[in-house]
Design a protein that fits this description.
The protein has seven helices and nine strands. The protein is of the alpha/beta class.
Amino acid sequence: MPSASTEVFLGRQPILDRQRQVIAYELLYREGRKNAIEVGDDAQATARVIRHLFQDFGINTVLGRCEGFINVDAETLMSGRIEALPRNRVVLELLETVRIDEHIVRRCRELKQQGFRLALDDFSVYHDCYEPLLEIIDIVKIDILQLDRSALASLVRRLRLYLARLLAEKVDSWESACHCLRLGFDLFQGFFYGRPALLAA
């Protein structure tokens, strides 16, 4: 029996550079028109985002000329299915739930060699276990709401030892945006720049 609704949904939040130009979108799982987020299974949510992006909407409709950040959990990262994504259009964003170990680092190295770009999500505390990953990661997304100004500045200085670009996420005010600019962040995301928009098809 056919479903009462054939609509599918996708969330999209802009990521901007220092000139406030939109250069990418983070693509988010959405269940319905209320923009609700009910993610019980990260791998399933990622699979639906990918399916909606390529089958239901079309990558050019969703992203235009921009790139797309796609959240990936450990299961998705290790899956060979991820290799079918267009590496010139997507950034694989490792969720904060991914436990960093030698298997994850090895897999990230493989994906880097294939031309994929990688980002670390919701980064707020530096640990030595991140060092092997930070040597190859392209973007570190720092959750600025988790840190006071002193801790944020200290973390930025530490991460500047690596080549990764720094993205300030959850920027929610003009004051926060200016502070992150002064700290030298490369990219920005948060309600101050734009709330996630709901796309339906």
